[in-house]
Amino acid sequence: MQEVDYYPFSPSDFGDLPDDLTEYLNIDFLDTEKLFDDPTLNCVDEHDDCSDIQKATEVPGEESQPQRNQRTDKQTKNSKKRQRVSQPLCTDENTRRKRQKVAGQAKTKEVQAELTSILPETDVGSVPNPTDSLSGLSTTPPPRIVHLYPSHSAPPIPIQIITIPDAAGYQVVQLSPPPPVIRFPLSNTATAPTYIFVPATSPPCKRRLPPLSPVGGAVAPVQMSSSPTGSLSDSASKAMCPPCASPLSPSIEMSQCKESPPPQSPTVPDIPQGVNDYIQEAKAHMNQVCQDMETGISLTSHYVDVQVSQREALRSGKNTNKCLEKELVIMGDTDRQKSLLGQSQIFGGSNGDKDKRYILLLGNAGMGKTSLIKKLCLDWSRDCLPQFDFVFLLDGKQLSLTEPIFSLQTLLLNLSSYAPSCMDPEAVFTQILAAPKRVLIIFDGFNELREYEMLLQTQEKDLVTSLLKDSKAQTFAVKQLYSAILQRVLLPGCTLLLSTRPRGSALQVLRRTDSLLEMCGFTSTNVETYLTQYFTDPALRASVLDCLKSSSYLRLLCWNPGLCRLVCLVLEQCASLEVLPRTLTGLCHQVLCLKMEKERKNACAEAQTQTPGQSVQDKTQILNSCQVKKCDGSNQKKSRKQQRTSSGSRRSMRTKKTQVDEVDEEMKNDVEGADRTEEGELLSQLSSLAWEGVKSNSSILPTGRAVPSKLKAFGLRMGLILCHHLRKRPLVSNSESEGGGRGDKHEMGEEKGNRGSTDVDVDDDLILLWANPFLQSYMAAVHLSLSRTVTDRTFLQTLPFQLGAKGRRRPQREELELTQRFVVGLLFHNRTELQRLHLHSERTLRDVVVSKQASVIKHLEDLSYSDLSPSQVLEACHCVYEASHTSDESSRNSGSTQLVTDLAVNLPEFLTFQGVPLSPPDVFTVQNAVERGGAEGRSFCLDLENSLIQICGLRALVGLNNINTYRACIADVVALWEQLEQAGETGLLQGAVSTFKIHPLRATQVCHIEHLEKLVKIHVHKRLSNSSSQSESILAEGVPAVKQLHKLEFELGPEKGPLALPKLWELLPGLPNLQHLDLENCKIGDREAENLANALTSLCSLEKLNLSQNCIGDQGVKKLTATLKDLPKLHCLSLYSNVISDEGAESLAAVLPQMASLTDLDVSYNKLTDVGVESLGASLRNCNEMKTLRMWNQCIPYGVFERLQHQDSRILLN
């Protein structure tokens, strides 16, 4: 719908107009010769014709010739009178007669007197001149108005006549406002112009009208030929249709463009040159600043293109209406590979997909969210994202600015990251408001979803009104502006990209987003690519790859891009390392030691560079003092000394050199001792700050207290912290300061050149933040495990698996989980290496570590693993692994061995990780725990469904000897079987097939049924694929998991259920041992009930059938009863809440006595009346095995139920 000006003078004022208005054109009042041959009416200049002209946005399609002929024949049959009247108007002879007849009448003068000029009503300068592009149209005087008289008693009707020539260069234009149209096509005038009669102009008023396209070969303007629905009578509507075929017109020639696909991006509005210059400047600036990932690493040289997976948030299951939160759908590895997206697909719009306007990017710490965002900004700067004119990056750290001094304009153009200075902010902001769909706003730097949830809380009405009134003139806090953008109060049409970690509540965020993306991490190919880019020396690269192959855990840690960077830092020194770290604690400890060693070398080099003279002077003084002492004794033996040979002098030289070396070594030890003491003190202070950040769930160092300058400089040199310039106040211009704004010289700064508007820099706030989340958690763990200020009680409260207020285990944040894991690893680490992290003496350090070790061991021993959630069991495996696998095998103590034994003995036999995403390092620790359990004689049943485990990890766990059974995604299991078959590992394939279980199967997604169908086909054909033969011996008896499937719950709901039902009907015959089939709330109708009945014929073992809350009617019940009576073991049937009436009840009552095994029947809440209830009650008397019959219905009188219940107590009301 488009808003146009509507004329209150509508064709309804004409009355009921007939199909042909020519009979009302009284020849006494209208001289057609003077009317149509008037040179002033032959051509019209559009500028003089209408008040506002625009180009057409849509070209009408070409009408087929059969449709025209059909409509022409219909009009010919229905209007003989029209043919009789229109013929004289179309023949030359009759026209001449009528001209002669009216030549002497005085009424011709009256008609000519009423032809008045129409003056333009609007400024023609604002509309492009169509004569510049249209050939064949000449400028003519304005059109005329003719008054037509429908009857002698009716008032005259003013009609505006426009002639449109059939010129080759003619283009369809729009007339605004578009008046209602009455068009008069003339017969036998294929090449003549088409005349359009339009009511004279009247004062316009606003109204929304649907745009209609011209019909047939008419070249009428699009809006001119449109009319509101219902504004024309039937006859007037028919008059608008052409009765005959028209010659090919420009509109028909252009109609082929309508078949082409629509453009992928919205129409780009005209951008002023000044704004376009700013966009190019912003791209150049962003191309420069987005290159650096960190020191020495750039996007161009080191970035690896990591794909993201498309996630879904669905309401699934039986209780769909009761589910308030949307849950993320967890896919298997096979389905995740199908959902991978490239960076060009993040915003949609390709392959006909709908554009994504609210995108949520999820990823744990170090997964590369910020790197991906930088890459997107870099792509935009290189014109790889043409759908956006502006890209603004808003940082979560800006929320620390609480002063309400910002507007939306200053937020975007001044506070957003990578934004250059803007010389004309007014024009740029006007363009942003004019085309918000061309704007991309990225939110980064939010640690968890709960931070977005706080911004999505409902704002006050007064604040919303103020934001909508004028967001540029008024000032607000950053939090208020962020909230308004996220809630679509400001810039509602822009595209939002939110990056965050997946922890925390996500209810409101999931409700608003239309695309959920997740970072997938590095594959093995990505790791090799990154190592190749990182290590440019071929020899070093080969050595690094060999070292990485020998360390399984380090190789798996590289799945996380952030940890892959730390691994590369350690592998750079692989030649000098005796043993590579085997735990995450060991890796972070080694990285910290390397940074400390580098800092010492830099400090020594700096000291030698700054004070070389002082060092030489000290050494010279010491040597001189030594030489003076020797001279006192040598004066007494001068004669003897003169007799010595040259060998004695050489011995003296050696002695002197030895003395100098001793002095150097002594001085070096003194300097290193002082440096180590200072270094330990600074590390202790940094670790305390790190723990405060972990407690507050923040990567920003506390701003409540001043950080000493020496500590700040030490952290920056070590690369542990970074500094971020945060602008406190927006940039202001000279006009603002002159108008009473902030004119302080300190805030205004210096002017730049002689430009019209001068941008001025103001105060910047320098905030410090941790450079790496893993090193922050590690430093926090150093404080907890080694500091004497942390009491035993406080330490116990920081250990994992603490109980909440109501006895439930509290969920942990990612940073806190990492810190707790590092604490356990540090307490069982080599104490000699821990001495470098603190100032304690060896004895004090031993006492602190031993005390806290005992607390950890007792805490883990007291855990009841059966009461832990799957995620907590996984975290316990991590903690024990960190404690047991220190950097040196010889340094293991009895405490770590005790932890391993306790975990292996107490792990639950049914080990489930359902719903917990398992990364490659997670799989490794679980594998280690299960292997330790096998050493203790334990065996386990693994449940790996909905765990996102990769196929390689599935293979590692399935190949263990102490696995009795396992459950996993069916598609992933089949893919594993195919890999094992291709590799020729028959023994492992035999074990993987025999131990796989799917009972009971709960299908909550369409893909679950598709996977089950594939497994059933393997079971039926007894081979993995059509071309494989190696698995025939293994699958000779079919798939054991299919044969052992006894319960199938179809819980896709009414929305997704109908999509998977056809596949379900096909696979059900392949489940002969199925005993329980649950099809509740799947929108099964009579047709689906018939298909179900055909599939049930092969389910001879079926005992329970649940068809509640469906749409089964009488016909469906008839089909089902014909099959259900032949099921020998069916004892429970539920038809609760369907649409069964008395006819269906009678069909069911007829077969009840034949269903000998049926014990429970539920037909409550159907459309039964007392007739149907009576028939079922009568049939119940012949069913001796029946125990309960439920058939409550609100439409049935209670007395009927009371009487039936008195007759048979097996009839229940609920």
From TrEMBL:
Ranges of Polar residues composition bias in the record: 128-137
Keywords carried by this UniProt record: ATP-binding, Leucine-rich repeat, Nucleotide-binding, Repeat
Basic and acidic residues biased stretches: 666-679, 739-754
Single biological process term from Gene Ontology: positive regulation of MHC class I biosynthetic process
Pfam families per UniProt: LRR_6, NACHT
Domain NACHT per the UniProt entry, residue ranges: 357-502
Any one Gene Ontology molecular-function term assigned to this protein's record: ATP binding
Region (Disordered): 52-137, 632-679, 731-758
InterPro entries, A to Z: Leu-rich_rpt, Leu-rich_rpt_Cys-con_subtyp, LRR_dom_sf, NACHT_NTPase, P-loop_NTPase
SMART domains (UniProt xref): LRR_CC, LRR_RI
PANTHER family: MHC CLASS II TRANSACTIVATOR (PTHR47189)
Protein name, UniProt field: NACHT domain-containing protein
